[in-house]
Here is the input.
Amino acid sequence: MLLRSAARFCAPILHGGAAASSSLAHVGGDGSKPLTLNTPFSAERALELAKAEEERRLARQHKLYEDMLVFDGGDIKDVETLGKKILTRDFVQYANFHYKWGYYPKFFRKYRELMTTGFFDPIPFASLTGQYDYEEYLARVNEASPTFGTPSSLFQPYYGWALAEYFISTMRAKFHPDEPLIIYEIGAGSGSLALSILDFLAEQYPEVYERCEYHVIDLSRYVIPILRKKLITHMKHVHIHHISIHNWRDLEPRRCFVVGMELLSNMPHDRITWADDGSGYEQWVEFDEKDNLAMCNERLYQITDPLILRYLRASQWLQEESFHELRMLCLTDGNTTVTKPKFGEVMEPTIYMRTFEGMTAALDVHNFYRIAWLPIGQMVMFEVLAEFFPRHHGFFADWNSVTSAIMGHQGPVLQAKIRVAKDVFFRSASDHLMANAGMVDICFPTDFDRMTETYRSVCGEHKEVMSMTHPDFWKTHGGEKTSLFCTRSGWNPMLEDWAAMTIFATNHPAEM
Here is the structure.
């Protein structure tokens, strides 16, 4: 599986690779030779290093799950219909991304023209006096837009320029001189970030741009034509893949950057509850009538899903000293006995649900059961990166907290922009997941400490990991380009605002 489709990526790796192939003798226990500046680079060398990474990945997986009999299997489904019974993660995937009923496909269809032209004009930082002017300007912009503003969308094109500079500095520190700049962006949206990065490289670093590749991975059929139109000026360097990252199966043996801006917050999550004695339950959504959201129930069963069990182990939650009963489930290949939860197995949405949830939250200290939302989609993406992008450098920016979240650890906010007048939109939050499927953006916060544990477990301890708030990251790595965001008073929103966002960046070691 590792070498499947590898030839597709080998040709553009290097000019003059054949001359270097004679130096590819295997040295060392892992079958690879240290890479130095004097070592010629080639497609064969990239495959050799990728093979060594695959051997390390299999060893990590064996060690991590050696006592678990049910860790293998499981997937994230892009279901056509809800059917009669569905896991919470598949329900979230359906509600956000179903091609007909999902929130984002409906949004893309409705605002196709704005997707092409852009939701936001560049912010005139140099004409703003300071923080007050900036916040007033931002409030007006958000009120006039049907989408939610984030730094990567509001700060264009400057944000793309700063990110491109970060890629160049990392490339100089970690890449072999013969290796090209390769970027994979997952969920590129309207393509504004990709366009600003490529424009900047073409103007400022033409020698890097000449050999660079920019790959876009997106599962929305409505975004693909918009991206092709917007990125037409860079068509020789852009490759668009209409596929979910969770279903990616082509090997990329070269060093590359994998970018996800506000990606993690919309990935499928599972909901579990657990008791103080360690017994845990996974939540399913069941329908009295097929596909009828008005007649759905939330049912709890003891955890047997392999993806949930894998996440609990990879994130360091499933250890000997905790979740003892879950660990026993792993050892016994699943326990079919279902213990009825304290508040009943079925929780049906009713007009009293808000009151019930509020009372339960207020009495949480006495609540026998606990609720957590697990980022299963995040872990599956890391597994894909570890297997098919073994030498990747990651860059992910997302929310570390949200307001108006529903109950549970890392619970999501259910929100939408409601149009109240011409070019006037107000944010509206909902309080129940099932009743508003496909009508609201389901946005999860990310626990970046837990994410770091998961990433290291799946992708390896040898990866260099940085997790910093958005302002702190750009203070450290922004360089001179951060001056583009300064107001007249010197106040800089790139370095002072957006503390609710965190940047998670990883680097592959220089000689591997």
Observations:
- The domain at 95-267+378-507 is CATH 3.40.50.12710 (Rossmann fold).
- The chain is about 35% helix and 20% strand.
